[in-house]
Write a structure and sequence with these properties.
- The chain is mainly alpha-helical and about 90 residues long.
- It contains three helices and two strands, in the order ββααα.
- The longest helix has 16 residues.
- The chain is elongated and about 60 Å long.
- The chain starts with 18 loop residues before the first strand and ends with a helix.
Length: about 90
């Protein structure tokens, strides 16, 4: 399988809604809106900003191996890591 950047879905801008309906059914002004961010999402943002190590040479070698058909996926290793991450998320 090749990684092809042209297959990415286009990014679209959300429409801004200047009014919303309150619980009473009447329109409320947009400046009355409040937003809360899920703690997990906030953690992702902090992780990205922390400058986690990124090995561009390793990424390039993996891309080349995939392009040449030399990259193989070990299903047992993927399954083990997936199970470990689920256990970590569940706090076990």
């Amino acid at each position: 399988m090749k990684i092809d950047p042209s297959t990415r879905a286009p990014v679209t801008q959300p429409l801004r809604n200047t009014e919303r309906t309150s619980q009473t059914g009447k329109a409320a002004p947009a400046d009355d809106l409040s937003v809360s961010i899920n703690p997990a999402a906030a953690g992702l943002s902090q992780t990205e900003a922390s400058g986690a190590p990124f090995d561009s040479e390793r990424v390039a070698s993996l891309r080349q191996a995939i392009a040449e058909g030399r990259f193989s996926v070990r299903a047992d290793a993927v399954a083990d890591k997936l199970i470990d991450s689920v256990k970590e998320l569940l706090g076990r």
